Amino acid sequence: MENVSVLGAGSWGIALARVLATNGHKVTVWSALKDEIDMLNANYEHLHKLPGVKLPESMVFTDCLETAMKDKKMVVLAVPSSFVRKTASSMKEYYEPGQVVVNVAKGIEEATLMTMSEVIADEIKDARVAVLSGPSHAEEVGRAIPTTIVAGAVEKETAEFVQNLFMNDVFRVYTSPDVVGIEIGAALKNVVALAAGIADGLGYGDNTKAALITRGMAEITRLGIAMGGEAQTFYGLSGIGDLIVTCASMHSRNRRAGILIGQGKSMDEAMAEVKMVVEGVYSAKAAMKLAQKYDICMPIVESVNAVLFNGESARTRVKDLMLRDKKSEVFLHEWTN
Q: What is the predicted pLDDT for the residue at 271?
């Protein structure tokens, strides 16, 4: 068993910490919020983010980053994507050579267009960085509902180390060397989930959602391959798997925010009502910039940006998507006649 820590006491960080503790590892959870740490120490339960999910009393909770980093074989970075660089910058003072840093945030840094693993590597030189992603709502992982996910790293040894620490009979972990593909799928599915939620808020049906999921996956795949990802990744857990669950579930904060926007609320009003970080809002602009950089056609991503940031009508944007130039879906084969 290993000494490990989770930085970030949100719902996903707490759920993953519980998995690790259940597997017998010595787990420390860090939060920058002293009130949050006091609550966890008093209740061994996150009363606001994962109510009803009791945590093992072997877990340690601290607001001291040095304590959370010291003598840990693996550090799981579970803060929102907008805080990854700041947290990684603070971590580097205490980083110990050989520590594995596992990113579980899903996003693209707008200013640099870096993935989260690239941001971590930019701040912590020579860090052993891995990613963990897939269809995995914290609310279900915390309740030990069977879940399957993928660990990605450049080095096979690192990916398998993460796999071994997390895997159990209700949390199955695969490995992959395609870190770029995993992270692009993870970040952009949140943007498509916003679109799916907006369609729900407008009162559209399953046909519309299926179309958004399918064509959204086509957009993600085109961009991901252009950035060096493998096509197979986007048809796997961190691609279509994560996209389906995020577009379909009410656990999805991105879908919930989209529903509110479709019902007429502003982006800020929707985010305030969801009361959690809506990663798709932060990833939407970055996704549009990446589409422009790599010259990739991404009409759904473009439409989400238009609704979020330009005040355009969601209903009008759906109509525009439907009336785009006629196209063929399959380009791999020639017509026979």
A: 86
Active site (annotated) includes residue 189: yes
| Contact between 238 and 175 (Cβ < 8 Å) | no
Nearest Cα residue to 286 out of 111, 50, 140 = 111
Whether residue 48 contacts residue 249, with contact meaning beta carbons closer than 8 Å, is answered with no
- Is the full-model pTM beyond 0.90? yes
- Out of 73, 189, 265, 275, pick the active-site residue: 189
d(CA 179, CA 12) in angstroms, rounded, equals 20
pLDDT (tens digit per residue) in 312-323: 888 898 888 887
| Nearest-5° Cα angle at 79, 228 to 233 | 25
How many whole angstroms separate alpha carbon 18 and alpha carbon 25?
A: 10
Sites in the chain below the pLDDT cut of 70: 331-333, 337
Would you give the end-to-end CA distance of the chain in angstroms?
Answer: 64
* Contact yes or no for 183/133 (Cβ under 8 A): yes
Tokens 């509110």, located at residue: 260
pLDDT at 117: 97
Residue 148: the pLDDT is 98
Output the pLDDT for position 138: 95
pLDDT score for 311: 87
Question: What integer pLDDT is reported at residue 280 of this predicted model?
Answer: 86
